[in-house]
Amino acid sequence: MGDAFQAEVSVAWSQTCWTRAAAYVRLQTAAEVANALGIVKETGTKFALRSTGHNPNAGFSSAGDTGVVLDLRNLASRELDAEGIAKVGAGNTFGEVYAWLAEHDRSAIGGRDEQVGVAGFLLGGGMGAFPNLYGFGADGIKSAEVVLADGRIVNANAQENQDLYRALKGGGSNFGTHGPNGDTGVVTRFDLYTYPLLKIQYTINLYNPQDYVAIIDATVKVQEAMEKDTKIGSFTNFNAQFVAVGLLHAGTSSERLDAFQPFWDLNSLITTACPTTEGTLLSLAQTVSTRHQQNDGKRRIYSVTTRVSRELYGGIYRLYREAVKELPEGYVLHFTAQPVGTAAVQAGEDRGGNSLGLEKTPQCWWVFTCEWARKDDDAPAEKALGFLEEKVEALARGKGLLLAYKSANFATGHQKVLHSYGAENLSRLKETAAKYDPEGFFQKLQYGGFLLRDNA
Ligand SMILES: Cc1cc2nc3c(=O)[nH]c(=O)nc-3n(C[C@H](O)[C@H](O)[C@H](O)COP(=O)(O)OP(=O)(O)OC[C@H]3O[C@@H](n4cnc5c(N)ncnc54)[C@H](O)[C@@H]3O)c2cc1C
Q1: Of the candidate ranges 190-194, 216-220, 438-442, the one whose mean pLDDT is the lowest
Q2: First-to-last CA distance in the chain?
Q3: What residue range is the signal peptide (predicted)?
Q4: In the chain, where the domains are located
């Protein structure tokens, strides 16, 4: 196996995806993308699309030895037009987009980590640092140029192919493939709204998990404050040894924000991992990335969404502790509360709507993550996440606090993400797929993903 081949195998963030495909095809231009799709269609070859390979579900952007991975990382054009619309290729990371836009004093809505790919993030909805300010990543798409199954390249936006435009905002890889402005003149790309460069302030504190009741109380208080101030963002990441809390504000102020006082009042601070810093989305993403470096490890994730409740959050934490107790040494289990306010859902509606089917209510997008060494057995990790999936949903359902939504960006492969968007959205997605891909090419030949074929 040559170095280039091995490099492709091991691009993926999670080693659960380090399977050897039959071939990896690095595509340089949109025309090559259309060509490659034509060949896999003609030969009936299974394929997977990869932008940066950050999705940890095996078979989504990786394939086994009967499949081909179409690697879009080199499709990395970037152009800012006179109206401030950023036209970016599918192969960009948000770190690259933020750094480039900062040179133009602009910001776009992207991920909280610099290494994550634009395409997977946006097509999966996309949770940024400040969802309440401008909505989710998908809501920031003004237009997309799409290579369809028959090789046609179409625009999808509020004026053209509106059904496709809405479908793409959360609908994943069911409709076509997104690429950049190639040098052949064939154009496919995401056009993103931009805003004057966001000056932000952030702090990351580590607390003692024994104080979880008070930490949860502070998390809920900050979420309540978000309903009044859309510039507030936060995350609370529970680990066995510490709880990492990100306090984020899309504004600069030398004063501590009152909304974060419940955290400053806690007596359980272990250390300040990142002291209060004035920066940008880029510097925040760089800071967060230092905690997410790629290392030798397999990962599995799981998504659930609930309403806000101290009692429920406490119950979730206790279930987590039960799961941790059962894990052998070397398996790291952690979970994150990602608060979302009503303003975030409203922002999506204001930008023409998306496919996510979110209830307009304060909510928490939970993501559970297990990480373990490649040499170790997958079973304990699968068992731990399976336990949490069953118990957390049952707990939330029993209290009337479970929401249907599952985030594509945080869900494990078997979760029915598209189904979770609700009957109306699912039916729209099916109609759109039938219209733009009548032969079901993306359903039949795509290796994996949150596909309509699994959400009947
Ligand atoms: C360290 C880390 C931090 C993260 N932070 C965040 C965060 O802040 N917010 C958030 O919402 N998510 C976050 N995620 C989750 C991330 O958004 C998803 O894993 C996403 O799928 C990654 O996209 P990608 O393009 O990098 O991945 P890939 O693994 O390359 O692709 C993911 C999926 O998208 C499809 N796809 C890729 N390119 C295309 C294309 N051009 N056209 C059609 N389909 C395509 C693939 O087939 C695959 O199903 C994070 C993940 C990691 C590992």
Answers
A1: 438-442
A2: 40
A3: none
A4: 3-71, 78-196+425-450, 200-403
Tally of residues, the chain: 456
ipTM above 0.85, yes or no: yes
Q: What is the fold, at CATH topology level, of the domain defined by 200-403?
A: Vanillyl-alcohol Oxidase; Chain A, domain 3 (3.40.462)
Residue nearest to atom 33 of ligand 1 (CA): 120
Q: What would the pLDDT profile of 247-270 be if each residue is shown by its tens digit?
A: 999 987 766 789 999 999 999 999
Please report which residue ranges of 124-211 form alpha helices under DSSP H: 131-134, 162-168
CA dist., res. 287 & res. 79, Å (int) = 26
Please state which architecture CATH assigns to domain 78-196+425-450: 2-Layer Sandwich (3.30)
**Is 3-71 a CATH 3.30.43 domain?**
yes
Alpha-carbon span 233 to 198, nearest angstrom = 13
What does the pLDDT look like over 105-153, one tens digit per residue?
A: 999 999 999 999 999 999 999 999 999 999 999 999 999 988 988 888 8
